[in-house]
Fold:
Amino acid sequence: MTAYLVALRAIVLREMLRFVHQRSRFLSALVRPLVWLVIFAAGFRAALGVSIIPPYQTYITYEVYIVPGLCGMIQLFNGMQSSLSLVYDQEMGSMRLLLTSRLPRAWLLFCKLLAGTAVSILQVYVFLALAAAFGITMPPLGYLYVFPALVLSGLMLGALGLLISSTIRQLENFAGVMNFVIFPMFFMSSALYPLWKMAESSPLLRDICALNPFTHAVELIRFALYESVNLWALVWVAVAFAVFLIGALIGYDPARGLTRR
Structure:
């Protein structure tokens, strides 16, 4: 058990130090959602007013609605960036050396997943503090209740990134695949607009968005920020996490890997 904890501490600490030293990564993680919050939301405030829908008790402004979606966006991009570093580590040899240790490969990958999730949660709380500075606040206890939701959604999105990275062996190919996954997941979700808005234009698009795991991650965060639980979103995110993690473990298994020749 000591060896397991030492590996966990080392991998998490390495990821945290990498994040601290890469200040541009931290700034870009905050600038991206702030641009959406300040510029995009201001432009669409009148056109995309949101009526009373759970978990909200009154009519809300568009800025209030998209904050949970932007929290999910931070975790989505961080999960992919963490997987990008894994592809880089494999190319440079450090991760390949780590995966040859005596500890189970599944534990090492899970440690990497926990480290990326911890970084994403830190980014989300900094963003929520900046949103509060712009006058967009949540119920006080919501900032506490959202923590378990952020852990589960971060693990799910990080596991998706691990699954994608298990199929890629060259760093140059990752950017294209990442964009092919990130943008459809983000725009075909409830991050920017509620599903009933989509149903007005296309019921088929609404059904596709309802199947998107990122939609349920956003709704899990949204309900948690308002001190409630969306059980359906919780189950969906947990199932997606299990599927993505099992797929990633199979993908990184040398004997059964997705890229085995």
